[in-house]
Design goal:
The complex is a heterodimer of chains A (321) and B (884). By secondary structure, chain A is α/β, with parallel strands linked by helices. Chain A is built from 12 helices and 12 strands. Chain A has an 8-stranded mixed sheet. A two-stranded parallel ribbon of chain A has the order 2-12. In chain A, helix 10 runs parallel beside helix 12 (297-305). The termini of chain A are far apart. The longest helix of chain B is centred in the middle third of the chain and has 35 residues, at 281-315. By secondary structure, chain B is of the alpha/beta class. In chain B, helix 7 (118-132) packs parallel to helix 14 (281-315) and helix 14 packs antiparallel against helix 15 (320-335). Classes of the chains: A alpha/beta (321), B alpha/beta (884). The interface between A and B is medium-sized, with 24 and 29 residues.
Chain lengths: 321, 884
Amino acid sequence: MSDVPLITQIQRFSVNDGPGFRTNVFVKGCNMRCMWCHNPETIRPQRELLWRSNLCEQCGRCLEACPRNAINPPIDPELARADDSSYNKIIRSNCDMCIKCVDVCVYGALQVVGSELSISDILDEVEQDRPFYENSGGGMNLSGGEPTVFPEFTTKLLEQARARGINSCLDTNGHCAPETIRSMLQNIDIVLYDLKHLDCEEHKKVTGVGNKLVLSNLRGLMELEKEVWLRIVVIPGLSDSMEYHERMVAFLQTLPTKPQRIDLLPFHNWCEAKYKQLGISDWAFADFQALESTSVDPVLRLYQKTGLKANIGGSGFEDAP
Amino acid sequence: MNTQEELFTGKYSHRRARIMGNATYKIQNNKGEVSRVMTIEVARISEAAEKRSLDDLEKERSWWWAAEKKRSPRLDYLRKAVWKKGRRGGEYEPGIKVDIESQILFTKSCKQNENDLPQVRRAKALTYMMENRAVFITDHSQIVGTEGNLPHTLYYYAEAGPLFAEEIYNDPIIIPEPREESLKSLSDLMNYWSTRHSMMNLMRQFRAEDIGKLFTMALMWGAPFGGSFGYSGKDYEYIHGPDQEVGGGVGFEETIDRIQQKIDDGEDKLDGTPDSGELELYEKLPNWEAMQIVLEGCINHSKRYARLAHIIAENFEPQAKRQQELLRIAETCERVPGQPARNLQEHLQLQHFIQVWTRLEDAEGAWPTRPDYYGWPYYSKDVNIDKSLTQEEALDLVGELMIRAYEIGHFMPRGGAEALQGIAGTWVWTLGGVNKDGSDACNDLTVAFLQAARLVRVANPTFGFRWHPQVKDDVMREVFECIRQGLGYPSIRNDPILIANGMYWHHHPLKEMRTWVHQACMSPCPTTKLGYQPCRMASATMNSAKMIEYTLHNGFDHCLQMQMGPKTGDARKFADFEQLFEAWVKQMEWLMNFGVRIVNKGRVEAHKNYGRPFLGGISERSIESGYDPVDPRSGERGNSWVTLFTWVENADSLAAIKKLVFDDKKYTIDEVVDACAKNWEGKEEMRLDFVKNAPKWGNDDDQVDQIMVRCLREVARHSWELKDPCGNPWPALPENVSGNIHFSNLVHALPNGRRWGDALYDGGISPGPGLDKKGPTAVLKSCGKINHISDGRAFLLNQRLSPTQLAGEKGYQLWKAYIRTWADLGIDHIQFNMIDDQTLRAAQKEPERYQEVIVRVAGYSAHFVDISRKTQDNIIQRTIQGLG
């Protein structure tokens, strides 16, 4: 992997990822393969092509433009848009990402995800919302993908953000060398630390990697008394039982200090369309409904009972004075 | 009064589907008897709502049902007993009738007094009408008086001649039974007024070319011809007193005495040696006489309510508690307006009467008022000091004031109603703000109004809240609750910015500017002797998308197929953006000139044709000077503005041409002019390029934001060159009401990618629907690049936020931080629409189930189900910001 990631999106007015109004910078490329991933476009480090059936008028211009026979001929747009349609515009095995099709698409149905941006470009955009940060304790949130996969870039970005006086959160899955994350800490205000599963075997099964590093890095951060907002995903059938969360509470009590907050992140399937746009037809969670936040209430109370500051969702506005 | 008797026999049972209770109104004829008890059936709380807990209802955001559960039985009754006076889509509600009686009486008096001078004749006619038309009191009500003669009638203005009468004559709903007789009366009225109305008098004085262009209705909204909309500020410092004290303000009896003194002095002068200074008295003496006549008529009108209340208490009302209430109404109406109010009920009754009488005199499109500020001494005395009223009782009065306001309505022609979807006018009440010494003016009554609004949930009036840095957190929470509960109001106004704005443009002194109220939807206006402005029409309200349209086509209008604007050069020959911009500036100046030329002339002529003796009688400057208040010679300082409908299209279109033609050279200017002239026919790809690949306002993108600012600076420069009859400038005020729908067929294709007939952007400086892709922070950043003091009068900004995001304490903290940044950026206005599009889609499918969903449509709120499908679609299309 090159050490300069592509950026999938810089999202202003992010209010569910740390304190205040934040600008999320999403890097492209991840070292985990979480089965429920709700940002599938940030997994692969390479540029990818999106096709949006709802915008596509099936005009056929992309077919004419494609030199590699990677475009399916047009069909009735309504058929292509149907929920159960198996039609996809792009034959990805033939595609070499020349993106001639994107250039001719007047409807915006074909788009490239992943742009090369310099650190100063990124920070210029982040800085545009400075007046909002000042009134809300907000700032930048470096997210992804997994930013620690790009240590040099991430370190530099955080350093320069600090130099510009921008508050920074790092949203990480914790799967990196201890010294990687440690070297970044001085320029991070809060670590939003994702915990995908407590058990190593299960972690490996659902993310592709074990959680040894994840847990030891977390312990390391807590030893340093770093401000951590621990983000615990609640996935139906995997991590939604009371028993699981009781064990989680027990684990948290073994940490040298307590995380500032526990943020429960209930599963949702609002990213389903993104899988379709990427041409991924076999998303494991396609048939699961988003969890109602009320169904997570008992779990929430469990954490709160033990004296932890727990919330559903990651909004810092929960704690604002 | 046979005609009136017959009015009551209509069948109203179809009015609501869920019928379980009755509303009763007792009506008095001109002989002082209760001639009729009118009963209609109204809905009671639905079973579904009754079964569920308040908590559940609030969780589901079923705010209407929750309000039903929370409000007092009195407010519940009054809310349901009120007749809705706005049009639903195109039509009035079944059962709504036009009030012919008032105009028969008015006209009868005019005929009897044809030899009087116009102002005296009008005063006598108004008085005769008030002393003879039906008055009624709704059961459980504590505040009386409305615009039409009966609970279900729309007032209208026969004086306006055929302007309204033709449409009324042909309306399928509103002709009262017996139809033949009503049509005959309407026709007689029209025959009389069609040769006497002010439009006839005035029209001859304008240039034919101007009149021709005006009546294309493509350039501006409204006409300054009398009998049309007025937007009158008020001299509340005179009416309620300058010191916020109980009993401050001047009662009508004392005003009549003061005027008598002026008349006596004038007569003495006329008896003396003529020095030419006496000549103006020939004009002033009849003005004073007219004021006296109408003020006496108002006192008598009020006393008729007192008498009716007595009669009901003594002959109809079995319950002792209600008898007491009726006697209190009687006492109140004996006291005000003749003498100053002594308590909250008298004060609110006076506030209400002032608005009713202003409307009997002229069609008022706005409701400038600051009820928490002027009502505070009375609330404080009754609730906090004397404890003669409980908080709940006070809340009932405040809630009823809003309901009584909602009851008011006069006939609106279809064209006007289209731009005011669902409501009878844009009544923005002003709350909050600062005292004259700059300290926080928010008080317990401010809170009571914000609470009452959530209980009665009316679409009109709405509130504009004057935010300033000292507003306390508990008041902000009340404001937020109204927004969160989907009322769509208050809009938030930036007090320090707007105070500075009024001082900058119109030289209002600081302490006067601190009294400001919304004169119409947006424009701040002091409530002082020389500061308040009574304008005869919706200022100069321009369809400003014409600026860019005419720039492209050398002043030629492709919708109308005629030359309208000046010839500013063949756009196909423009070599660079600067030439294009130069032509745009000329078109802009021409359009503003056109509107101001019409309105300036209308303003100086207004008092001759359509004087305002009542408004004069409550205005210190008219009482003192003897000039009618709409006569600029009365001494007003001037508070004019040019309303710019359909404004943002200019910046987006200019930016699109700059980028795609002059910078990227992807198209030639020739191609753009051509494509627009042909309404993009056969150019869909190119059109989409202009929609998607050109910078759009509202995304914190300097490529277009700097063009917006540059346009506004040119407008502001020209604003100082334009002078109103008081010698003051005409700053611009971008907003839309629903003009974006009204004008959609009158604006041709534009380079922002809009096709002829597509809805225009929805208002002010709000980004185009769905085009604000960078979210709510970027929208504010763009808007913050405008200087909200010196670039114009005020700038409307709609912002939709999702209700899920604003739930709970988190929602409040988020909103508060957002508002703080909005204030830091120096933006003068913002209003929030808090409804998610799922609700709105559902409301489109099953309107019956979503009767009470209120949405903001540029400048005011309306019940969603009442607005046209086209406007509904336009609202839904707006980007829902920041979900999840």
